[in-house]
Design a protein that fits this description.
mainly beta; Beta-galactosidase, Chain A, domain 5; 11-stranded antiparallel β-sheet; 6-stranded antiparallel β-sheet; 2 helices; globular; DUF4380; DUF4380 domain-containing protein
Length: 315
């Protein structure tokens, strides 16, 4: 289903860790991109994506069909909002996430296809993150190209990990892979399976006071979320179970103990980087409006259709 290479590791010079903002006259950004005093806004069709360069280069807002779909900074006093990228496994850094990668300012570079945001060097892990965002011609689609570059003088083993925070509602579903559900130190979530698809329907009565999480292997390279009148499908290269990060999952779902948000998460291949090498990972988000009361078979068919469209639209 995914036509892009699942894992690309390329050798780059150290100068790649020091991107420079180009002369604005030398770059003509796409017409769907505009910059405000603090944010970058990508807008096309019914989709508006707002990026926060000063807060980890994260996705701060996603408005689809006129409604906010993410759990945003306005919803919390903490740092757990929006969409972020972390290095996996978590056992390499514990908690909280490394600020240089998660929440400190990223450097901006404009391109003729979108925008690239690059972190500073994380000294303990020896990593630099870059996030390139663009809106492909396929309607209501966001393409994200992540790069994890080693700036260490030693070998690094790492996988990319995208965390999308959403309001505490709706349901999550994906094709189940080869491993059982794993919770680690977390309380579980009540997943069920039907015709090879794993389903989790959010219910606040099931949440708290513990942190809740389930990790497992997926199949087909997509992860879907439905709430009310819309569907979000995230599309990525499928990861065989044997290439997942240790004590992690290709697919992970988290619910916070205060029942205010959930996390829709997926991870890429675990790779060993030599000094100067870069791990590339592409994720496509595609949004679609839904008719009322679609059943599970219809939702699964729609998600598979959207995943196919997204894969064919990827650059």
């Amino acid at each position: 289903m995914n036509r892009w290479s699942p894992l690309v590791v390329s050798l780059l010079g150290l100068s790649a860790c020091e991107p420079k903002v180009p002369d604005p006259a030398a770059v003509t950004p796409p017409e769907y991109l505009r910059m405000t005093q603090s944010d970058i806004v990508l807008q096309r069709d019914e989709l508006t994506v707002t990026l926060a360069p000063e807060v980890g280069g994260r996705i701060a807002s996603v408005v689809f069909n006129g409604e906010e779909r993410l759990f945003t900074r306005a919803d919390t006093d903490g740092n757990n909002w929006g969409n972020v990228l972390w290095p996996s496994p978590q056992s390499h850094w514990g908690w909280p996430p490394p600020p240089v990668l998660d929440s400190e300012p990223y450097q901006l570079s404009l391109t003729d296809t979108g925008v690239r945001l690059t972190s500073g060097e994380e000294p303990q892990l020896g990593l630099v993150f870059s996030k390139s965002y663009r809106l492909p011609s396929l309607a209501n689609t966001l393409q994200i190209d992540y790069e994890l570059q080693s700036v260490s003088d030693r070998e690094i083993t790492v996988a990319p990990w995208e965390i999308t925070r959403l309001p505490a509602e709706g349901q999550i579903f994906f094709p189940k892979g080869d491993t059982d559900y794993y919770t680690g130190d977390f309380a579980s979530l009540p997943f069920t399976e039907q015709q090879g698809i794993s389903w989790y329907i959010y219910n606040a009565d099931d949440i708290g006071p513990e942190h809740h999480k389930v990790m497992t292997d997926g199949e087909e390279g997509w992860l879907a979320y439905q709430a009310g009148d819309y569907l979000l499908v995230k599309v990525f290269a499928n990861v065989p179970a044997e290439l997942m990060a240790p004590n992690e999952g290709e697919i992970e779902v988290y619910a916070d103990p205060t029942a205010t948000y959930i996390e829709l998460e997926q991870q890429g291949y675990l790779a060993t980087l030599q000094p100067g090498e870069t791990l590339n990972w592409q994720v496509i988000w595609i949004f679609d409006a839904l008719e009322a009361d679609l059943n599970r078979a219809q939702l699964t068919a729609r998600a598979r259709q959207l995943a196919g469209l997204a894969s064919n639209a990827a650059d």
